[in-house]
Design brief:
25% strand, 3 domains, 19 strands, 615 residues, nine-stranded antiparallel β-sheet, alpha+beta, membrane, transmembrane helix, DUF8094, eight-stranded mixed β-sheet
């Protein structure tokens, strides 16, 4: 009976293992589905719409093949179309039947709508318009390195890019922006053909096989112990025992030496080793998708949520995108600082930051020991607050911390249009004990606050003038009560520095000259992004001036020990005096009207800007 059960176990094991292996091989089917994207006309760019990428569920794998360089990037569909708006390109989208078809697109406008024109009816010039003829295609340009892309890939001859994009994002395929884009393009999706019972069947068959081997071994042992069937028969003749001590040629020798344990155990091992080897071999072929999912579904943990205002647009950048942009800015400015290259710096700097850098290059070119300005910090990026804006210009606020020296920098980046890179326009150091207001997360973004918004405690375009008045008049200023004085290190340092310089000047020059100080709004417009509590982080530019004049007709002002002013003014002395200008970049938190808080200074930076002879 043991042999019968052993045979049954072997048969069931063979069936189960065969069924499990068949599920993983002949019955499994293809693992991916691939769609070839056909492009009829040659163009320097090919746009693959997000609907094509999400025609099937799951991640996407893009494959492009051509001779030479292949470039692939992805980003928001609206951003890609804005970048391509002045170029000819092929757009691959789904038709009404769900098939991917290609359309040749010609330029509709010379540039995307910006600023206030973004929502106007005539922001986009249509082809054939009587007043505005169709725009000519823009000059060829490489798509590599654009700040619009969320990520990009570049390779020669063959490029395979694994993607996982929603339908709101699209893919741009090109070569170098001049040669036609690759025409051999395909998209693949994984097919959900898991075999959750293959693993249990194979393992269960292995267990049954082991049981069959065990039953077979028991059957053999039982037969050997019973030494065959016992039957009743005729009486046997009486026999006598053989005397083993006497050796004789007439007597047969019967040995009674039993078999050794080693021989028996060797045979047992011969039976057990194949079973273990077969089981190990079967386990190696079982992957995660060959098993059923028995774990319970995780219960979501409730978290605090923010309500996105109705109609709010998409954030300008993602956190990863902002980090990459800032790294590019830092690297470019570092190279410009090394070579004193103002033109290179201007590709990534603007506003007060560029003006101060330009002055520093002039001084370093003339004064050997003139120190360079501090490098642009790039990481780690602690805060990213992008403007919620689909059109242009776009603004991003970032805060970069340095744990080593316990410092932090706050900055505003601005992109003027779809083809321009982001430029650093405001940069300041955060005060040591700065407490930032509540900000929206990067995936929501914040609206840009208009300069004349009256819902704040003070409109952004009035902050610079009010704070300048405080620097000039101190507590006697009419705006002193609106700004928080405690913790304002910049105001304290300006007051202390002015008094120290005036005392030093009065020691030798009070009888023949005068030194006066002033502060006024700078040349660059403020930038403000909204906070969660309806306030705003406002960046402004101030100019501080030191004016030295002779008070006697025969007196002159000499720059004997002032190489900085001498270099910028271009003279060593003047009978009319000199005006030295310092540029200040200040970040304030301006609360909403009705708040009990005051306007707080968050960070500041001050560098020399210019020096001139008074005329």
């Amino acid at each position: 009976m043991r042999f019968v059960w052993a045979v049954v176990a072997f048969v069931l094991a063979a069936v189960m293992i065969g069924a499990g292996i068949a599920q993983r091989t002949v019955f499994q089917g293809p693992r991916t589905e691939t769609t070839q994207l056909e492009v009829e006309q040659e163009a320097p760019y090919t746009l693959i719409d997000g609907a094509v990428l999400n025609r099937l569920p799951g991640s996407q794998t893009l494959r492009a093949q051509a001779d030479g360089t292949i470039f692939v990037s992805y980003g928001r569909t609206a951003d890609l179309k804005a970048w391509l708006s002045d170029s000819t390109y092929n757009e691959v989208a789904l038709d009404d039947e769900g098939a991917a078809v290609s359309t040749f697109v010609e330029p509709e406008q010379t540039q995307p709508a910006t600023g206030a024109d973004a929502g106007s009816a005539d922001a986009v010039t249509e082809p054939g318009d009587a007043e505005a003829p169709p725009a000519e295609p823009a000059a060829p340009r490489s798509p590599a390195g654009s700040d619009l892309w969320l990520d990009e890939f570049q390779q020669d001859d063959l490029l395979i890019a694994p993607l996982q994009l929603p339908d709101t994002m699209s893919v741009l395929v090109a070569s170098d922006g001049v040669a036609p884009a690759p025409r051999t393009i395909s998209v693949s999706w994984p097919i959900a053909n898991s075999t959750p019972w293959a693993g249990p069947l194979i393992v269960g068959g292995g267990i049954l096989m082991a049981i069959g081997v065990f039953l077979y071994f028991l059957g053999i042992r039982h037969v050997r112990r019973s030494r065959g069937p016992r039957r009743k028969g005729l009486p046997m003749p009486v026999t006598e025992p053989i005397d083993l001590a006497v050796e004789s040629e007439d007597k047969g020798v019967i040995t009674s030496t039993p078999r050794t344990r080693r021989a028996i155990s060797g045979r047992r091992a011969f039976v057990a080793v194949p079973a273990v080897a077969v089981s190990a071999l079967l386990f190696t072929g079982c992957t995660a998708d060959a098993w059923p999912t028995l774990a319970p579904t995780a219960t979501p943990t409730p978290t605090a949520s923010l309500i996105v205002p109705e109609g709010q647009q998409q954030p300008a950048v993602t956190e990863a995108q902002a980090e990459r942009i800032l790294s590019r800015i830092s690297a470019t400015v570092e190279e410009a600082d090394t070579n004193l290259d103002e033109a290179l710096a201007a590709t990534r700097l603007d506003g007060a930051v560029l003006a101060e850098r330009t002055t520093n290059y002039t001084l370093r070119g003339a004064i050997p020991d003139q120190a360079p300005l501090e490098k642009i910090p790039a990481k780690p990026l602690e805060i990213t607050l992008p403007q919620a804006q689909d059109a242009w210009p776009r603004t991003v606020m970032t805060v970069v911390t340095d744990a080593a020296d316990k410092s932090a920098s706050i900055m505003y980046l601005t992109q003027q249009d779809a083809w321009s890179p982001y430029k650093l326009t405001y940069l300041s150091s955060l005060e040591a004990a700065t407490e930032m207001p509540d900000l929206a997360p990067a995936w929501i973004g914040a609206p840009l606050v208009p300069p004349d918004l009256s819902f704040l405690l003070m409109p952004p375009d009035e902050v610079a003038a009010a704070y300048s008045d405080i620097l000039n008049n101190g507590d006697d200023s009419e705006f002193a009560g609106m700004f928080e004085a405690e913790g304002d290190q910049f105001r304290a340092s300006v007051t202390t520095d002015r008094q120290a310089r005036l005392d030093e000047f009065n020691k030798t020059g009070s009888t023949t000259g005068s030194l006066t100080f002033g502060s006024a709004p700078g040349a660059f417009a403020p930038i403000a992004l909204a906070t969660v509590e309806s306030g705003a982080i406002v960046a402004v530019n101030l100019n501080e001036t030191d004016t030295v004049k002779p008070t006697q007709a025969e007196a002159v002002i000499k720059l004997t020990n002032n190489a900085t002013v001498k270099t910028l003014a271009g003279v060593e002395q003047s009978s009319t005096g000199f005006t030295t200008t310092f540029s200040d970049q200040l970040f304030f938190y301006v609360p909403a009207q009705g708040s009990t808080e005051k306007i707080r200074l968050l960070g500041y930076a001050s560098n020399i800007l210019d020096a001139k002879v008074i005329k």
